[in-house]
Design brief:
- The chain is α/β, with parallel strands linked by helices.
- The protein contains five helices and seven strands.
- It is about 45% helix and about 35% strand.
- Strands 1, 2, 3, 4, 5, 6 and 7 form a seven-stranded mixed β-sheet that branches.
- The longest helix is centred in the first third of the chain and has 22 residues.
Amino acid sequence: MRRLVVVALVGLFACALAAEASEKPRIAVLEFKSKADNHWWYSRGAGAAQDVFVTELVKSGKFRVIEREQLDALMREKNLALSGDIDPSTAVQAGRLLGVDYLLTGALTEYGSSDSNVSGSWRFQAKKKNFEAAMNARLIDTETGEIVWADEGKADEASFDLKIHGFGGGVDDDKMFDKVLKPIVQQLAASLKAADI
């Protein structure tokens, strides 16, 4: 009798988990469009931004997220090309074809670096590299085509390099975009998680 009760409780628990999972909205994260001036920088971060968004949304536990490769395969199969700005009718059509409740899309609006150098011949050299990025994101309801959530994030980071008589150094970080872009995506994902959707 005790075993029967345990099996029944486990079965009820599994049913409750399945019901909870089915209530979570299904979401597809599209590749972000570049509206930044220096497009070649963006090509290095587009896939990374999409992947980080997927990871953060899955970790939130609020959504059922379509895996990126599965999304790409479905889009190829349905002959769809979606990224960046999409109109409401395209969002509704894509939502039906992909079987998702929402499409997450957006754009990188600022992405680049600037350098400033000071030198006193070969004896003294100082270099500062500043990297800035800004991104916006939107969640589109695939039933209505309406944007139900939107937000933007911005970040910057600096690195310094100092040499005296050829000695010294600092951080001349070629991965500055990772330090700037990832926190923006995490900030936007947290905002989406907190939204009443």
